[in-house]
Specification:
Elements (H helix, E strand, L loop, with lengths): L1 E5 L3 H14 L11 H7 L10 E10 L2 E16 L2 E11 L3 H18 L3 E4 L11 E3 L17 H7 L3 E11 L2 H17 L3 E4 L5 H15 L11 H8 L11 E5 L5 E9 L2 H7 L5 H9 L6 E9 L8 H15 L4 E8 L12 E12 L1
Parallel strand pairs: 4-5, 11-12
Antiparallel strand pairs: 1-2, 2-3, 3-4, 5-13, 6-13, 7-12, 7-13, 8-9, 9-10, 10-11
Helix pairs in contact: 5-10, 6-7, 8-9
């Protein structure tokens, strides 16, 4: 086994991307990422690299890739006051030796850059995909959910990583119960002359500026937060525009029209995106259009509230609005997605079924 390193190399980059598809080729549950999105992540022009440096790693055996990852050093990232590096885009065959060789090489690079701690898996920042699915997958994945072979967390643990944070997705099957529990908070929200409106898709660029401002202030003190430029935020979310329906993003405002928070949801399009098989060409887009979408499942991806507005119950009002939308449009199931174990947003779910569990891993280096 040998380790190959690269930053810019078209041939190796293609092998890096292709290997992710090779790992899951026989897994019918897997939702292929868009190849273009991965290439954009690895492009040195990616705005995320304004704050750091990265290197990609491949483990080769018998002229074939058997493991891969990217090590990213973000000069703005810290864990317990220690400069922190990230290991992401991790994929590997079930071979502990290959994983150890790969992780050792990535960690050595991060150590050379000045990191004293490392997190994984993190695809460059917590604004992008991160975390492992841990334990047995109780349900098929939704788009954007961590999904990986069950041995990945074991590989990290075998190399000295420990779980530093647990996350959950909750499955809600009783919209009326949520509406009942949050109604008093929605009434308080209304009495304070706040309103909720759907995103104006015809002014999507303008609305992105609003979402960015709320996100930057609401998530600033979240675990693992790092600064992200508007250019980076726009590049990430403009790609979602074709999949967004009018009421998928709800924006809360005060009486003067000042943004106070937002909720981001989307219909469960997993089957349609699977059929696209990682491609964004015209034929794949037609496949997405003609494939039936889930008639009953809504993914509640993000809730963000501007600081200082907890007493107004903006968050609870947005949850109420999301479940009101779910009832109105026939969604019997709402998945509250990817919530930290200590996040207040978990309280909005009442006593739900745990849909799946995830973990973020860390290690001093």
């Amino acid at each position: 086994m040998i380790v190959e390193e690269f930053v810019v190399n078209d041939r190796k980059c293609a092998a890096f991307v292709d290997f992710g598809f090779e790992i899951y080729k026989n897994d019918t549950r897997w939702i292929p990422p868009f190849r273009k999105s991965i290439y954009e992540l690895l492009d040195v022009k990616n705005p995320v690299y304004h704050n750091g440096r990265f290197k990609n790693f491949l483990v080769i055996s018998d002229n074939a890739v058997i493991a891969r990852c990217t090590a990213f050093f973000n000069q703005l990232a810290f864990h317990n006051d220690k400069q922190t590096g990230f290991i992401g885009l991790f994929e590997a065959v079930h071979d502990l030796e290959a994983a150890s060789i790969l992780l050792d090489a990535a960690i050595e690079y991060l150590r050379e850059q000045g990191a004293a701690y490392v997190w994984g898996p993190v695809n460059f920042s917590t604004w992008e995909n991160y975390r492992f699915l841990t334990g047995e997958a109780k349900h098929a994945p939704f788009y954007g959910e961590p999904y990986n072979p069950p041995y990945y967390p074991e590989m990290f643990a075998a190399n000295g990583f420990k779980k530093i944070k647990t996350y959950y997705s909750h499955l809600i099957t009783d919209n009326q119960q949520v509406l009942h529990s949050e109604q008093i908070h929605r009434e308080r929200f209304d009495k304070n002359n706040y309103t909720i409106r759907p995103i104006q898709l015809g002014r999507f660029e303008h609305e992105l500026h609003i979402l960015y401002g709320i996100s930057a202030s609401a998530f600033r003190f979240n675990f693992g937060y790092t600064e992200k430029s508007f250019a980076g935020f726009r590049a990430q979310y403009i790609k979602l525009r074709p999949f967004i329906e009018k009421e998928n993003i709800l924006i809360a405002e005060d009486a003067h029209g000042t943004p106070a928070g937002y909720a981001f949801t989307f219909r469960d399009n997993a089957d349609a995106i699977r059929r696209m098989n990682g491609s964004l060409d015209i034929f794949s887009k037609i496949k997405f259009i003609v494939t039936p979408k889930s008639p009953d499942t809504l993914i509640f991806k993000t809730i963000a509230v501007a600081p200082g507005l907890r007493k107004v119950r903006v968050g609870a009002a947005l949850v109420y609005a999301v479940h009101e939308y779910a009832v109105r449009n026939g969604f019997a199931r709402v998945i509250h997605a990817l919530m930290s174990e200590d996040n207040l947003s978990r309280s909005f779910s009442g006593l739900p079924e745990i849909y799946n569990e995830y973990g973020l891993y860390g290690k001093e280096i």
